[in-house]
Structures are given as structure tokens and as C-alpha cells.
């Protein structure tokens, strides 16, 4: 458990916007990442995630704010039940993506 926690912390430190990552098998990950700046204000359909990166957008988490502040609380986020293609992405939204690690790296590095 300590090694897994250390690996998660290391990934968060080197990947901007990373909220969390889960290894699924040897090649796949489920990734929670704050919407990259280049996509803020874009609609989901414009990202073309499936065709462009061969990734699945599982859901979008809409974080809540700590009462009386502008501090984002990712651990108390509201989960979108169904991702509509016309959904506009906000700067604090968290994308939950699933796919091969290599494709996730392409998405993050573009």
C-alpha cells in the first residue's frame, strides 16, 4: 500500500492537473485530470477524444467549492451521469478518461 501511495503521489507531482490515476491491467489506466487549458470553453464533441486519441470519456466531475471560499474540493465533486456532446468544459471540471497509457500520454502531451 505504501508503494502504491508513493507512486500516485509521484505521478501527481509530474503530471499537471492530475487528480488521480488507477492502473487497470498492464497497459490501461483510468485517469482523473483537470481539463487542460487548451480545452477550457470547448464542447465535448470538439475534443474528438474517441477518434483522435482512442480514449473513452467515462464521465465529467464537477467539483464543489469549500463554503465561503473559492477553494475547489475535488473529493466532493458531482459526477455527470451521462456526458452530452454539447457539454461545455469549465476550467475546474475533471475529465475521467480510460484507455491505453500511451494514448493518455498523447492526450496530455499535445
3D structure, described in words:
The chain is α+β, with helices and mostly antiparallel strands. The chain has helices spanning 2-14, 44-47, 49-53, 101-109, and strands at 18-24, 28-34, 56-65, 72-79, 94-100. It is built from 4 helices and 5 strands; from the N terminus they run H-E-E-H-H-E-E-E-H. Strands 1-2-5-3-4 form a 5-stranded antiparallel beta sheet. A hairpin with a 3-residue loop joins strand 1 (18-24) and strand 2 (28-34).
- Which percent band covers the strand fraction? 35-45%
For the residues shown, what is the average pLDDT? 83
Query: What is the makeup of the main sheet?
Result: 5 strands, antiparallel
**SSE pattern, N- to C-terminal:** HEEHHEEEH
* Percent helix: 25-40%
Rg value: 14 Å
Report the structural category: alpha+beta
Number of DSSP strand runs: 5
Q: What is the CA–CA distance across the termini?
A: 32 Å
- Count every helix, treating DSSP H or I runs of 4 or more residues as helices: 4
Sequence stretches where pLDDT stays below 50 over 5 or more residues: none
How does the overall form come out from the CA principal axes? globular
Strand order of the largest sheet: 1-2-5-3-4
Amino acid at each position: 500500500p505504501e508503494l502504491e501511495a508513493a507512486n500516485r503521489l509521484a505521478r501527481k507531482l509530474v503530471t499537471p492537473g492530475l487528480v488521480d490515476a488507477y492502473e487497470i491491467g498492464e497497459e490501461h489506466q483510468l485517469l482523473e485530470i483537470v481539463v487542460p487549458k487548451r480545452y477550457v470553453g470547448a464542447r465535448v464533441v470538439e475534443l474528438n477524444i474517441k477518434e483522435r486519441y482512442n480514449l473513452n470519456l467515462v464521465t465529467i466531475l464537477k467539483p464543489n467549492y469549500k463554503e465561503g471560499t473559492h477553494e475547489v474540493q475535488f473529493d466532493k465533486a458531482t459526477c455527470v451521469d451521462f456526458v452530452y456532446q454539447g457539454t461545455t468544459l469549465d476550467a475546474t471540471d475533471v475529465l475521467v478518461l480510460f484507455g491505453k497509457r500511451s494514448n493518455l500520454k498523447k492526450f496530455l502531451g499535445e
